[in-house]
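[SOLVED] Predicted holo structure with pyridoxal-5'-phosphate

Edit: marking solved, answer below. Original request kept for reference. I posted the sequence and ligand SMILES and asked for the 3D complex as structure tokens.
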Amino acid sequence: MTKQPFVTNEALKEIVKQYPTPFHLYDEKGIRENVKALKEAFSWNLGYKEYFAVKATPNPYLIQILREYGCGCDCSSYTELLLSQSVGALGRDIMFSSNDTPAEEFALAHALGAIINLDDITHIDFLEKTIGEIPKTISCRYNPGGLFKISNSIMDNPGDAKYGMTTEQMFEAFRILKEKGAEEFGIHAFLASNTVTNEYYPALAKVLFEVAVKLQKETGANIRFINLSGGIGIPYKPDQTPNDIRVIGEGVRKVYEEVLVPAGMGDVAIYTELGRFMLGPYGCLVTKAVHEKHTHKEYIGVDACAANLMRPAMYGAYHHITVMGKENEPCDHMYDVTGSLCENNDKFAIDRMLPKIDMGDLLVIHDTGAHGFSMGYNYNGRLRSAEVLLKEDGSTQLIRRAETPMDYFATFDQFPVYEELKKNTEEAERRFGGMKQE
Ligand SMILES: *Cc1c(COP(=O)(O)O)cnc(C)c1O
């Protein structure tokens, strides 16, 4: 199996004339086809709604595309709420699924009319003190503990996760919230991440649906929605079989009809908070080979680094690499593909078999559309790249410019040194032209 980039070599050669590497490129066509398929897969559920996990790709222009298909925003911070507000996602279009939440974030979420998803039972009092009431609609995050298994294979370890309430606490929380005036309830859980199996969502749904039936029966709470959250994964490796969202939707429907419908809960809405599945495969990091080094190993140095894509350094995550224009050449060279950080884990690939790479070759690092740009950081004074949208008609749109040195220095703006930084930056730009973005 091979993984094909969503952009051709010819098209990319034109694109890099306009936007200097490195940059993240997004595929509008792929995004639209995928969100349509997701909606279809859950169309059996009248209240179905996807709340895009903003943290995965916090770009208003990309979120706006998802908004066209009725997606809301899943936020967990102040700035994510502001971003959501700025694309017109307000009120019930916001799911506020946060944890360790500062008071001002609850206040802003409530002011925007967001659905608040409580991570902990102690947050009931904290929220009430902060906003002066308990909202009519409220959700609680569930963590059953233990290991989350599907047919004997361990998917993840919720017992070790900081999120959510225990089973006992869920019952207690629902009782308290009801007493305090809550009228419509939701349940949420996120028990495994990046699952490349069609069985995760149905298995999670079963856990949540069963606890929902008990909660409604024992507390009398009116449960209006069940939020399956994120966790549907993508095949980062070429030999992985992608999830089939239709099979997943059908799997959830089956459990819904087995558990919720007989309990008289056939009108409960299903919500999702997908991030990776929505955009992961529809973004890539475009970078150029700028150095080769032959020492104890063979190294290719590229002009991107872990500041542009942290997953390989942080998780040892695999990201497929295509050397553009050499798709059909034999992968007979073993390379470490590195960035320039003074940090030995700054490697996009280790011992990777690739075609022979020449200086100036364009490399496409796949599947950076979610948890890619957004995890970027500024170590070593490295700057975040631009984001570019490849539109359906083949044209491109800059949807975020690259950072400049003055963005990096911006937080010194109240300090005397700022003028010096500015002067030196301008002079360097004049003399060397570096770091310039049109
Ligand atoms: C990160 C996150 C998501 C999205 O996760 P993916 O793995 O990108 O699907 C959804 N909900 C919450 C609360 C999250 O923290």
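OP edit: Residues 53, 55-56, 74, 97, 190, 193-194, 229-231, 273-277, 370 surround pyridoxal-5'-phosphate (CB under 6 Å). Thanks to everyone who chimed in.
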